[in-house]
Amino acid sequence: MKRTTLAATSLLAAGAIFLAGCSTSAPNSVPAQGSDGSGTGTVNFLGPEDPATFAPVIKAFKAKNPDITINYSQIPFDQLNPTLQQRLGAKDETIDIYTVDQPRLSQLAAQGFLEDLSSLKDQTKAAVPDAQFSVNLYQDKLWALPVWNSTQLLFFNKTALDAAGVQYPSVDPSQRKTWEQIVSDAKAAQAAGTEFGLLLEQVEAYYQLQPLAESAGGGSGITGDDKLTVDVTNDGWKKAMKWYSDTFASGLSPRGVGGFQTSPLFTSGKVAYFVGGPWDVGNFSKTNINWGVAPMPYFEGGSKATPTGSWSWGINPASKNKAAAKKFLEFASLDPAGNLATTEASTIIPANSAATEQYLPKLEALGGDKAQGLAKLIAHENTETATPRPVTVGYIQFEEIMGKAFADIRNGSPVDERLKQAAQQITDALKQL
Amino acid sequence: MSIMNKTSTSKRRTLGYIGLSVLGACIGLLFLLPLWWTFVNSLRPGGDTFRFLNPLQWETFFTLTPSLDNYVELLSSDLGLATWNSIFVSTVTVIIGLAICSMAAFALAAIPFKGSGVVFIVVVVSFLIPFDAIAIPLADLFRDWNLQNTYTGLILPGLGNGMAIFLLRTFFLAIPKDLVEAGRLDGLGWWGIFRRIYLPLSVPSLIGAGLTLFLFQWQSYVWPLLNGTDAQHILGPIALSNLQGQFNVDYGVMFAGSIVLTVIPLAIIIGFQRYFIQSVTTTGLK
Amino acid sequence: MSTMAVAFAFLAPALISLVVLRIAPAAVALWESLFRESFLRGGTVFVGLENYADLFGNADFNNALLVTLVFSAIVNPLQIGVSFLLAVLYTRRAAGSKIWRSLVVLPIAVPPAVSAVVWSVIYRPDGLGNSFLAMLGLPEQSFLTSPQQSLASIMVLLSWIGVGYWMLFLIAGINDVPTELYEAASIDGASAWRKLWSVTFPLVRRPLAFVLVADTVSNFLIFAPVQILTKGGPSGSTNLLMYDIYTRAYTLGDLNKAQAEVIILVLLTLVVVAVQFRLLRSSDNA
């Protein structure tokens, strides 16, 4: 009995190890076998957006290039990164072109998941704002072309402000309010009956909170020549995070409301001041809220910083149809008409400067009277205050760990200790690299 | 004397009957509440989702102006196709999976062979292994075998389900061995015993195992993404997630999609309830 | 045909499927956990058990281990106890049992992403949970934003989802008990409570054992609610091992350590399950 059991077990184990060995010696060790292709045929495009968003640009491209067909598939946003990591790592040739979250670009480039596009460097530099150009560079090479941009705006509920007798903030960037002023106005609005005074749209995200630290003089949190040294325990960071923590502790801002449940709070009239993106212009216009828009505030005595950056598109080195994919990419990024088409079905700012000039007035018109002066404001922010996220191969680890720290600080964790803990965790994570 | 006893016991029994019915109803409704709220909100525009939360009002759970707008919007998404795909994949998995799992459970429970202990250990270990954790090496393997973007690739991992085998073995073990003896006397071989004795007596556990297999496939989310689902092979949970935009979510539409995806397993569960009746083991002995 | 060959014929499809699609990738995971990779310097390096040693020296991992053990110790008896009681309730003679128990089972059919969103609304500071409490005159709770309450909140959510599912198997088990035994006990003058303890409970041992093991394993692998609702917080109070593995693999990008963590999780589950089997077997013999 014992011998047969032993034999059975070893047979099973041997079988398993054999199969395991089979898959580990798989083509992962062979370098990417991509090729340029004929410049025609089907191009597979992968992204997290609803297909309706890209339908206009695909149609416009097809009109100019009838021999190339773009095939778009959608991956749910929260699964995009793991899916890309696995499929690009397995040299999946069914992906030709895919959307690249700009801050993750350096990691993807370092992993060999992006095709070198340095031949397009000069063209790109001329076509987009500086922040949008530099974010696609890693080790001095160009790895993706920017397609979308973003910024943040201060929305306010006019009814709430009226009830407190607070004057509306101006849309002119030269009359930008400070966070200190906004907090006191928000408290007045709360006293006059509005449930909450202030809310940030992506309330626990680094994208949203980086400018707070920058304005307070703390820098982006990543320093050093190799961009792998963390620095979130300096005075600027502590000041910004203490301010952030206080807004929740005092009840000015609600706890427990997740990232995408924030704008419904504003549209149901429960928040006086809301910091959100241009996409909210379209959303808010569809509701009954009497809203207005102003520049995003800054800390008194500090610099004026706004979040920026969005998506670029890049080419998979394992693709078998790179030439055709590049044509599509250049159309969607460097061609103003093409870039404009990518924003037709969505209220997000195009990256291409010429396209932006045409786009912003349309966005302003969408908001009607409420959005007067918006075009000038966004154009100003794009060139003057846009503060891009740091370019580092450790960005994902950094963002994730900081996100957890922000969540804890929001829920009441003591600021100094929590920042120290985050710094330690990030240092450990970056050491791996 | 005995008549009086009978009336007081029957009164107690009726009280007990009523009490248990009320308790059962309350608990059932309590469990339903969150889903009922979801259903009501699927009949309202997405912007109203968070309006009636606090304080509690009758509008939280009812709406005077139900509208099917959200469901109509689903028609223009790929949720319809995804639901059909999910039904197809899950059904095939259940049919084939039940067959092979019940056969394996039978071997473990009824056939005395050397090494059955080892095999049982393998079965148990296999369902200890978190599927999401091995999904990556598995996806690489399937890519080598060219199974990406195929129904086969989606179905295969769901067929061998350690928990289903474990479940069936548990219930098979309870079947009295004298029935096997009786079967042998009637001239049945192993296959006959399996088909004619074990299977008919195990309907509730087969349903349970079928449900397990079904749910594994119905809710699978990470695997189809890694295996590479193109628009043609998309599954329900993924289509549901795709409804969420990057910057905002229309909860009304998402809840409508959820109701659609929940209705099918619900129909199955309710439909098969009547098989969870008093066991037929006793009648078998007679 | 020899017994061994027959057994093999019955087992083959399921066993092959399990070995190839579960065990083999797990073996790959074990293998890869012995290496370390650095994509800046290129290449992988064999480091033996260093990944494991590093994990045990890491504060976050140790916290995750502790949280998982505490979670497991509380949620399993809770869910199994409740499932058993509900199974007993719904097998008594009462009105509409079949309907009410379908409602209790219903939550398992809901896509996990949707359950998470619905409960996030319940747990919001201005959500359904607090409005119910307000109606009852109880103070507001912080649920998911408090390190003390978050794990318990997740347990309630999971119980809402799973209790009906486990209850189904126990109902099947209870229905399997031959009616003669109840009749015999009645003749002996046993009360309903006594019947529960001396007739039902002992004969439901096997299905109960199945539910115990299967539920324990499922709870060790919990992941979706944490990913969607709490991301392991606040302050790591809901950082269950499976979520920690996911973070380590996909955000920290440390696949090899993540595989090591998977192996640790599997071994932990194996040990707990083995202990459960031992305990159940000895009580069987007793």
Describe this protein's structure.
- The complex is a heterotrimer of chains A (433), B (286) and C (286).
- Chain A is built from 18 helices and 17 strands.
- With 433 residues, chain A is α/β, with parallel strands linked by helices.
- Chain A is globular.
- Chain A starts with a helix and ends with a helix.
- Chain B is an all-alpha fold.
- Chain B folds into two domains: 66 residues, no CATH class; 214 residues, MetI-like fold (Orthogonal Bundle), CATH 1.10.3720.
- In chain C, 73% of the residues lie in helices and 2% in strands.
- Chain C is globular.
- The model of chain C has no long low-confidence stretch (mean pLDDT 86).
- At the A-C interface, α1, α3, α17 and α18 of A face α1, α5 and α12 of C.
Give me the strand/helix succession of chain C. Answer: HEEHHHHHHHHHHHH
How much beta of chain A, percentage-wise? 5-15%
Whole-number mean pLDDT of chain C: 86
* CATH topology annotation of chain C: MetI-like fold
What is the CATH T-level topology of the largest domain in chain A?
D-Maltodextrin-Binding Protein, domain 2
Could you say which structural class the secondary elements and strand pairing of chain A correspond to?
Answer: alpha/beta
